[in-house]
Amino acid sequence: MKSMSKKIIVSVLFLLMFISCGDDNSSGDKITYWSSNNSYEIQFADFITKKWNIQSDINVRFQPVPEGQSSEEVILAAVVGETTPDVYSNMWQGDVEVYAQAGVLVPLDTLDGFMEFLRERCDSSVIEEITSLDGHVYQIPWKINPIMLYYNQNIIDTLNIEGVPGTYSQYTDAARRFKKDKDGDGYVDQWFGYAEVKVTWWQRFFDFYPLYLAASGGGSLVKDRKAAFNNEAAVNVFRFLRNLYANNYFAKERLSARQDVFLSGVIATRFTGPWEIARAEQFKPEGFKYNFSQIPVPDNHTGPVYTYGDPKNIVIFKSCKYPEKAWQFLRMMIDEENDLKLLEFSNQLPRRKNISENPLYSDYFAKNPLMKKFAQQSEYVKGTDASPVLKEVFDLISQQYEACVVYGTKTPEQAINDAAEAVNLLFIE
Amino acid sequence: MKLKQKIVPYLLISPYILHFSLFVAFPVVFSIVLTFHKWNIIAPMEYTGFSNYVRLFKDAVFLKSLGNTLIFLVIHIPLQIIVALVLAQILNQNIKFRGFFRAAFFLPVIVSGVVVTILWEQLYGFDTGLLNRMLVSVGMNKVGWLTDPNVAMSSIALMATWKNVGLYIILFLVGLQTVPTQYYEAADMEGANRWQKFFKITLPMINPTIFMVVILSTIGGFSLFIEPYVMTGGGPLNSTISAVLYIYKQGFFYYHMGYSATLGLFFALIILLVVVIQKRFVERDV
Fold it and tell me: Which residue in chain A has the smallest CA separation from B136?
């Protein structure tokens, strides 16, 4: 009996020793790569790492970013705990500056052939946008999901308007025609649009920010350590949205907890990205027609219509033992052919110039005509400004957005001015 | 032998000392140190003197969050005590299905706060919520339970009362059952009515329970977090942002760890002060 117990104890200890000697992120001649944890990108990451590992002396081992409240939190925890992967491919552009200033990212412009590759892939405005405040480039622009006007074609066809509303007055006019109290209880229950009314900072990616970029021709929120949005474009956006809420053309109530309000016809439009296509195709009712168009602009707007691109970029952490090799892997991962694979696997656009005219992608866009609209829009997208306090900037704008746009307690001029003053205080040490 | 006698007590209390040092003393000392620093977790700490304390008194949102917490307490504590005491009185009688009702009232206490909050968010919905449908069906106007800045905190207090009242019913039931029946019998002989018995016998006799309930619901009220975090995010117009939610946002949203620690320390001192005051006055006067 005693010898049996001893055997069990020895076996358990041996097992524990075996487990504790297992692979970790930093051991062995491997590059660890964390991808996004959505199933499409996991498939892509699996495909690309297998392709690389066939021909390379240093293997890449991929895993989806561990589960957490958000991938941003997981990455922060990894940085603090010094358990970062070598390569991470789902980095929100607005977070890069914080990590760059903390010194945990590899300055990619110091790697052999990086800048040549970047100039070939992106135009100068993108390079300028992703260059950090210290003049280095710490991120590879990889993929974007431009925010556009998602509209119910069936509804637009019934409003007796000329085409899809593209300006503030056209949009407001269409909204007036559509607003309805269907059940006759004295309360509007059919709105032209909907945006989350919560003050959460990133909700402004789906209302204020794309509209601001459209109105300002891709303007900045912060520049030279001060607010750069105290201008007519921002005031006009607040005024436009405020008018929509004041007239009940947009719902003040949270509609996200019920059946999809767009597919059920409760609302006619939303400002959103290409991920809606897969959802609509899966859940749309019979006969439901939808499409995408550019973000509405002020009536006197001229020039191209910009929008927010929601870029997710790739970084190499300084914990990487083989940054040159990691760069070689990434160079292969985001070449033209593999960008096509990304498109096919995930329906997310690679951030590369002239993608809608590139013959390599023409078959894909022929099969996915709605994605072609996003590809055409991708020539006029902007990410975020390089700033370590970007979340605070969006939050301060959000506070004023709620006060002015949703509740009408401030004028647009006053709200934008207050937001700009609060942002300027962030930069005073 | 003597040495063993000296060492053994220390060995026996060492697990607690270790636990206390790691999980209480160290965090408290570290957070006090943090209040004099700027730290975003990633970069090294930067000494900033008393700037976090100066900022605290100029921070309009923090002051508003303190006001909101106070509003919550003013609504929540009396409501909680009155509802719990009334229900406990009823459940202390020989009524039918008493066991069932006791269990039913306690059920929300053991349900996850997030689940309760999501459920009430549906009830409070402006257009589709059950409460507004009921109001409209009797010819009344809809209420912006969570969208009207003047109403939102009261809505949260109502929900929190529903969620927690079961616990206080149990506490009051225990208190009521400790009141000797002879007092009531003597009062009956003296011709006291129901109210006189309640105010002259029951209330004074359950004084310690009332004090405990006041303390518990005050501390619970001060730690208001899940409800505004899930339901409103602190809005509309910061009308439901509680002090704890604001401290959390500063710490784990913006990673202003130094400032968040300063707010936390200041808030802990407020709670301490309130509890001391309650202990002096409530315990004596109730």
Answer: A185
